[in-house]
């Protein structure tokens, strides 16, 4: 069972189509954020290093991160009945992603 199926099976109770779409969006945004993270976010003027500009990658990263956070909040709110005590596949996946991002 892959991550997508694991998340969908844990979360959905009669909301499968909606949750499946959100999980697809969540994984898509996660992939895009990882790719953007490898690009430079600040461009320096070679003649004057104190002059700096934000790159398009930085702007896009900021926008996608907001969308990613919103989808994550919706998926987290969809997890029912555990009161935040049980370690869900979504929480495990999110914790793994956070640890990997912080390691870079």
Description:
It is elongated, with a radius of gyration of 17 Å. It has one domain. It has 104 residues and is mainly alpha-helical. Helix 1 (3-11) packs across helix 2. The model has no long low-confidence stretch (mean pLDDT 83). It is 66% helix and 6% strand. A two-stranded antiparallel ribbon has the order 1-2. The protein is built from 4 helices and 2 strands, in the order ααββαα.
Element layout with pairings:
Layout: H1 3-11, H2 16-37, E1 42-44, E2 52-54, H3 56-78, H4 89-103
Antiparallel strand pairs: 1-2
Helix pairs in contact: 1-2, 2-3
What is the number of domains?
1
Rough shape? elongated
User: How many strands, which pairing sense, and closed or not: the largest β-sheet?
Assistant: 2 strands, antiparallel
- The amount of beta strand, in percent, is 5-15%
Number of helices: 4
What assembly state would you assign to the polypeptide chains in this entry?
single chain
Helix coverage percent of residues? 55-70%
């Amino acid at each position: 069972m892959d991550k997508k199926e694991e998340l969908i099976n844990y979360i959905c109770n009669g909301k499968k189509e909606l949750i499946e779409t959100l999980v697809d969006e969540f994984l898509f945004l996660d992939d895009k954020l990882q790719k953007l993270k490898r690009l430079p976010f600040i461009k320096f003027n070679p003649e004057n290093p104190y002059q700096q500009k934000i790159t398009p990658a930085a702007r896009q990263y900021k926008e996608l991160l907001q969308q990613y956070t919103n989808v994550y909040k919706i998926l987290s709110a969809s997890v029912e009945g555990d009161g935040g005590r049980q370690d869900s596949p979504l929480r495990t996946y999110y914790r793994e992603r956070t640890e990997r991002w912080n390691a870079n």
